[in-house]
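To fix ideas, we quote verbatim one protein's residues and fold tokens.
>
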Amino acid sequence: MTPEEILEIAKRSDVPKFVFGSQDLKDWTEKHRDPNTGECIKHSGWYVVIHRSLYPWRRPDFRVLSCWWPGDRVPRAFDVTLEIPFLRFEGAVTTRLTELGWCRVDGAAIAMKSYLTAVGRKDAFVYLYRSNCATITGDYQSEGRNILEPLARLIPLNADGASINEAVDTFVASVDKAIGESYAMKLLKPIVAEEGSS
């Protein structure tokens, strides 16, 4: 099934929804499974299991479309992608960052870039948060603080590709400027000048 078909089934009002670990889900499972063998004895029809997010400001609750089939020991399951538009938006931002020399990463950050400084390589990270708008922000530690914190930019979630690229370009230019003016980069300039003159 396509993500759109899975989402369509999961959104139907006749499809039961249960929070993972709840007594209601346990009761539902026991109704369709033999307690001795663990095998499904009765087709359940579609139902949704909601996994609560530990970081709701970054990612919404995770949903799984499931169904018990006779003879199965575990339900058949399909990830429900509720945020298809946001995932496309995030993909556009990440693609633009990689075009500008950043590396895509998995985890809380969506991209990173290493900078050579007088104290060695230091990494900068980019994060994308969503609420009514998307916020692109970064983290680069210099002198005990995140010097990218004031550079956060809001991007409307309905922005077109050109507007997203423009916002990312502006953000990256401000990041490069802030890092270029950081203490470790200022220390590097005399070293590079010295090496160039010898």
User: Anything to note?
Assistant: The longest helix spans residues 161-180. Residues 192 and 198 are 10 Å apart (CA to CA). The first strand starts at residue 17 and ends at 19.
